[in-house]
Structures are given as C-alpha cells and as structure tokens.
C-alpha cells in the first residue's frame, strides 16, 4: 500500500503503482514513475501478466536550448515521457529515466519532477514510485518537501520518515540534495556548486571510457556568438560587462568569468597536507592561499581535450602560447586544493579585463 506523505501525495513501490494502474484508485489521479526506463513495458518485464494500456501525450528529450550544454544530461536523451495510462486511460503518468546509482544525475530531473508533483496535487492526488519505494522516489519527495516547505535536507527526510520509515535515498542522491539545499532549493546551472558537480559527472563519464562530446564544452568566448532572434529584438538590454580573461601574448579572449569554476583555497576532499610544508612557515597563510591558477569549464577552443587525451597542454587558439594544462585526473592548485578534473589557466599567462 502506498504511504500518505502529505495531502494528495503518496510514496510507493512498483507493486503499488501496478495495482493503481491495473485497477484504478479512488484517490490517485497521477503517477510519477522513477524507473530505469520510461516505457510502460518495464511493468510487463517486471511481472508477466501485467498489461497496462497507455496513450502517449508527449515524450520530451533533452533539448538544444542555449543553456543546454550546462546540464549533465546528454543531448537527445529522454528527459521524461508523459502518457494517459491504466484502466480507461484515466491516469496521467509521467516517467523519468533514473537508475538507483550513486553516480546517477538526479539534480537535472528535479525541476520536471517537482513541477509535475505540484501540478498533480492541484488536480487530484499523485503517487510517486520507484522500484522499491526506498531511494529514488524518496529522494524526489524529499526535494519536493524541501522546496515547498523550505526545509533542510535533514528536516525534509525526517518529516518523510514519519510517513514512511523505510525511506533511504542513496548517498549520491543525498549529496545532490545537499547541493539543492545550498543552491536555495533550485537547480542553478550558473552556480559554482552545480558547475563543480557537472565537472565531476563529466570526469566520471571520461573514466568510464565514454567520449566527451564537445557539445558539453562551453562556447568559445573568443568567438562572437551567433545573434539569436531573441537577442536582436532587445539589443544590449540588460547586458552586464562580464570580466574576461585574455591571452597575455596576443590578447585573444580565452575565458569569461562565467566559465570559471571556483574553489575554496586550501580546501578540497583530497588536499594533501604535505603541500603545506613546502612554504616553510605554516602561519604564513595569506600568501599561501593565493591561487596561481584559474580553473574553468572545458571550452570549445580546447581541441586537445576533445581529442580524448587524459592530460595535456592548453594552448591559445590564436598564438599557440601555452596558457595552462588540463588533466581529467586532477591538478593541484598552488593553494593545496585538488581540482578534479582540471582545466587550468595560469594567472601569469592571462590578463583580466572588463570588455
Ligand atoms: Zn587554489
Ligand atoms: Zn594568444
């Protein structure tokens, strides 16, 4: 039986969902399926004899919007499927393809899931389910409670456990929910927290041997962008001068402040203690924490990165001056922090200016 979490909001497992889909429900009108596949055939494969009629409303793929490369999701991947389902096609089912793995990107599905829950509760009642009703569905409902009730991760999880004791999102999901909290209950692609998460995900792709498509690289800030019709309509409106970094030798723009992935000097999961010894005086902290490098997102001019090497030089696309280094396994900043993966520009090779 599904557990009631809030008015018009239930959590359950695949059996609960199959029961509602096959026999209908006096309360539930909407279902959010969080399974490894969006297809209704997942139910048939799970238990033979389960046949659920569906009628597709729409299937939405990761689009090619301007901001799309900033998400972790591959272009053309299914973001969600929406259909009428069950007896007399009376239920509305949304399905998102999320596996219960620590490395799975949950963040990029939160917006569509939370909006679906919100809208469904206005029209009726919604059941959020995954396979066991323990990790994925719980993570999404936790995020929903965080956003709607402005609860901390711990607060939301504790509140959910009062309805359903067995909930236990996996550690990777908990980490991402913590980021969701730190970003103010939204998934903000421009936030340094999200940028670091994205680099980590790209690093995991690389380590698994997947080719990192240059569609995941940031636009080259040194090349004028194509002016979209939207921008033409409102020239210069609201445009702020964003600081840019230029090659010291030829002045080509190589990065903008938007591409910078900040780190806290001297901090990081794998900051090695021995690096501090080199400077001699451990109390001389102010000098020591001055970072001599800038770390950025991979950008389209970094052709050496696109070729698939583990590490290599980053050279200016115009004059070929050496600007820095990249390494998918990480580089240690002069402050002691390890940045993994790292796309590093030496501050001594670039100038900052507000163009
Ligand atoms: Zn540093
Ligand atoms: Zn140059």
TrEMBL record:
<dbReference type="InterPro" id="IPR020422">
    <property type="entry name" value="TYR_PHOSPHATASE_DUAL_dom"/>
</dbReference>
<comment type="similarity">
    <text>Belongs to the protein-tyrosine phosphatase family. Non-receptor class dual specificity subfamily.</text>
</comment>
<feature type="domain" description="Tyrosine specific protein phosphatases">
    <location>
        <begin position="107"/>
        <end position="162"/>
    </location>
</feature>
<feature type="domain" description="Tyrosine-protein phosphatase">
    <location>
        <begin position="1"/>
        <end position="186"/>
    </location>
</feature>
<dbReference type="InterPro" id="IPR000387">
    <property type="entry name" value="Tyr_Pase_dom"/>
</dbReference>
<dbReference type="InterPro" id="IPR029021">
    <property type="entry name" value="Prot-tyrosine_phosphatase-like"/>
</dbReference>
<dbReference type="GO" id="GO:0008138">
    <property type="term" value="F:protein tyrosine/serine/threonine phosphatase activity"/>
</dbReference>
<feature type="region of interest" description="Disordered">
    <location>
        <begin position="216"/>
        <end position="236"/>
    </location>
</feature>
<dbReference type="InterPro" id="IPR016278">
    <property type="entry name" value="DUSP12"/>
</dbReference>
<keyword id="KW-0378">Hydrolase</keyword>
<dbReference type="GO" id="GO:0004725">
    <property type="term" value="F:protein tyrosine phosphatase activity"/>
</dbReference>
<protein>
    <recommendedName>
        <fullName>protein-tyrosine-phosphatase</fullName>
        <ecNumber>3.1.3.48</ecNumber>
    </recommendedName>
</protein>
<keyword id="KW-0904">Protein phosphatase</keyword>
<dbReference type="InterPro" id="IPR000340">
    <property type="entry name" value="Dual-sp_phosphatase_cat-dom"/>
</dbReference>
<dbReference type="Pfam" id="PF00782">
    <property type="entry name" value="DSPc"/>
</dbReference>
<dbReference type="InterPro" id="IPR016130">
    <property type="entry name" value="Tyr_Pase_AS"/>
</dbReference>
<feature type="active site" description="Phosphocysteine intermediate">
    <location>
        <position position="130"/>
    </location>
</feature>
């Amino acid at each position: 039986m599904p557990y009631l979490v809030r008015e018009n909001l239930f959590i359950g497992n695949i059996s609960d969902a199959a029961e509602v889909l096959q026999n209908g429900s006096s309360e539930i009108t909407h279902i959010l399926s969080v399974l490894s596949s969006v297809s209704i055939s997942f139910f048939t494969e799970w238990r033979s004899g389960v046949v659920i009629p569906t009628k597709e409303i729409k299937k939405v793929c990761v689009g090619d919007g301007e901001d799309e490369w900033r998400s972790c999701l591959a272009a053309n991947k299914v973001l969600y499927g929406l259909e009428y389902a069950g007896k007399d096609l009376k239920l509305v089912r949304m399905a998102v393809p999320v596996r219960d793995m620590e490395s799975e990107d949950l963040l990029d599905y939160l917006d569509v899931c939370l909006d679906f829950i919100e809208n469904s509760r206005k029209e009726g009642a919604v059941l959020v389910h995954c396979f066991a009703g323990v990790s994925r569905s719980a993570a999404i409902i936790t995020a929903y409670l965080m956003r709607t009730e402005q609860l901390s991760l711990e607060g939301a999880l504790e509140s959910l456990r009062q309805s359903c004791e067995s909930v236990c999102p996996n550690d990777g999901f908990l980490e991402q929910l913590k980021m969701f909290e730190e970003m103010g209950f939204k998934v903000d692609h421009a936030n340094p927290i999200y940028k670091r998460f994205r680099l980590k995900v790209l690093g995991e792709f690389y380590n698994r041997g997947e080719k990192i498509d240059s569609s995941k690289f940031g636009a080259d800030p040194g090349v004028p962008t194509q002016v979209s019709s939207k921008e033409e309509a409102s020239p210069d409106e609201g445009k702020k001068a964003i600081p840019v970094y230029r090659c010291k030798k030829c002045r080509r723009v190589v990065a903008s402040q938007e591409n910078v992935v900040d780190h806290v000097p001297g901090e990081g999961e794998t900051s090695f203690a021995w690096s501090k010894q080199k400077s001699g005086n451990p109390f001389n902290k102010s000098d020591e924490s001055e970072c001599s490098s800038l770390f950025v997102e991979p950008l389209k001019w970094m052709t050496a990165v696109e070729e698939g090497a583990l590490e290599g030089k980053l050279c200016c696309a115009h004059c070929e001056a050496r600007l820095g280094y990249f390494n998918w396994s990480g580089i240690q900043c002069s402050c002691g922090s390890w940045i993994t993966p790292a796309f590093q520009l030496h501050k001594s090779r670039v100038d900052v200016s507000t163009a």
